[in-house]
Structure formats: structure tokens, C-alpha cells
Design goal:
CATH class of one domain: Alpha Beta
CATH superfamily of one domain: Glycosyl transferase family 10, N-terminal domain
Oligomer: single chain
Strand order of the largest sheet: 2-1-3-4
Helix content: 25-40%
CATH architecture of one domain: 3-Layer(aba) Sandwich
Strand content: 5-15%
Shape: globular
Number of helices: 6
Largest sheet: 4 strands, parallel
Order of helices and strands: EHEEEHHHHH
């Protein structure tokens, strides 16, 4: 009778945060899927990994590898289609989140945008530029191009701070942002050339998303 080789499990310290009160069992179920290979110590004291969801921002205080969990599937119609009724824009965001999930891009803003979407949050953008990004250069992690149009934005001042009486999303502002990012958003008057660009872009988005999830 052959001796079975003893499996030595790797010990991992992990923190579980930012889950809804009634969804804590999901984290335990996820860890249970790999208990045959790892021994987990649940702790918030100097963890190696942080397993977190979107119900808070406690995960940001840890200097550890963060693992984000969500029940949403961006391959299928979901909250993205509720946030963006434009098919092209919705597909562009799905592709961005797929790239992030499979580490095709190294960025922090896509996860932040995702958190805004699932929490029905809004971002405030002033009509005038109030900050200068001094992080452009060879030593930068992402913004290495000093000739970028975002590298040398002139500072401006607000003449008067006006507090709104109501807060809601500005569809015109969203449309402008998506147009600047070449996502070919829907317009009330579109030329045949623009419509074809939208169709080609949507087709490429779908193919790239499906390829990532294969």
C-alpha cells in the first residue's frame, strides 16, 4: 500500500470586511472553496489578504492584497444597463471592469467607479479645473506621459460657490464625458458614419468581453 503524500497547507492571514450584515456567510463560503490548499486565520491585525465587498471603505486602511467580491455579473444585463441605457456605453464599462478583473489594466479608478455604480453614488465635477496633477513623469506608476493633455491643466477659480437645492445625475455631462472617451454615445442626431462606428465599437466590445471570460 502506497503512502499518500501529506499535503502541507499554506497558512494565510486574511481580513474580511465591507460585507453587508446578512452576507457574511458568502465570504466564508468563498474561503471554504480552497480550504483543501490553505489554512486561514481570520484577523484584521496585519493580514496578508483582505477579502471585501462594496458595503464600506474599511478595506482601504489595510496595506495588503485586496480581493473584491461582488454578486454582479457584467457579462449579462445587470446594474450597468440600469445606470447606462446606451448600449455602447454600457458595453464599454463592462469591458473596463472585465479588464480590471483579469488584470489586463493596472488602475484604481475602475474599482472606484464600480463602487459608485453599485451604491448609486455620484461624482462631483466642477465646471472649472481646481487642481493640478503633479504626478506626471518617469517615476510615475501610470501617468508617465508629461505631454498628456491632463498633465498641464491650468488652474482656475470658482467665482461663486452655489449649493444645489437638489442632487441628481446630469445626463448631458455624462454624455460629454463618454464622447471625450471615444465611447460613441447615442446622440439625438447621428450621421450614418457615426452609426456605423457605434455598431463596430459595440461588436468589438462584445468580442473582447467574451474572449476574456472564455
Amino acid at each position: 500500500m502506497k503512502n499518500e503524500k501529506e499535503v502541507v497547507k499554506k497558512k494565510i492571514r486574511i481580513a474580511i470586511v465591507d460585507f453587508a450584515p446578512k452576507e457574511g456567510y458568502l465570504a466564508e463560503r468563498l474561503l471554504g472553496m480552497v480550504t483543501d490548499r490553505y489554512d486561514f486565520e481570520i484577523t484584521e491585525n496585519d493580514p496578508d489578504f483582505v477579502l471585501h465587498s462594496c458595503m464600506g471603505n474599511k478595506a482601504l486602511k489595510f496595506d495588503a492584497v485586496r480581493i473584491f467580491y461582488t454578486g454582479e455579473d457584467f457579462r449579462k444585463p445587470s446594474i450597468i444597463d440600469e445606470v447606462f441605457t446606451d448600449k455602447n456605453v454600457a458595453l464599454a464599462w463592462r469591458l473596463a471592469f472585465a479588464y480590471t478583473r483579469f488584470k489586463k489594466v493596472d488602475t484604481w479608478d475602475y474599482p472606484w467607479c464600480y463602487t459608485l455604480f453599485v451604491q448609486n453614488g455620484l461624482s462631483i465635477k466642477p465646471n472649472k479645473n481646481l487642481v493640478t496633477n503633479i504626478g506626471f513623469g518617469e517615476g510615475s506608476t501610470h501617468t508617465t506621459n508629461t505631454n498628456s493633455k491632463f498633465a498641464n491643466l491650468p488652474l482656475e477659480q470658482l467665482d461663486k460657490l452655489i449649493h444645489p437645492t437638489a442632487i441628481f445625475s446630469n445626463q448631458k455631462a455624462d454624455l460629454y464625458e463618454h464622447f471625450c472617451m471615444n465611447r460613441f454615445p447615442f446622440k439625438s442626431q447621428m450621421s450614418l458614419k457615426y452609426r456605423r462606428k457605434r455598431m463596430r465599437r459595440a461588436r468589438r466590445f462584445r468580442m473582447k468581453i467574451e474572449k476574456l471570460y472564455q
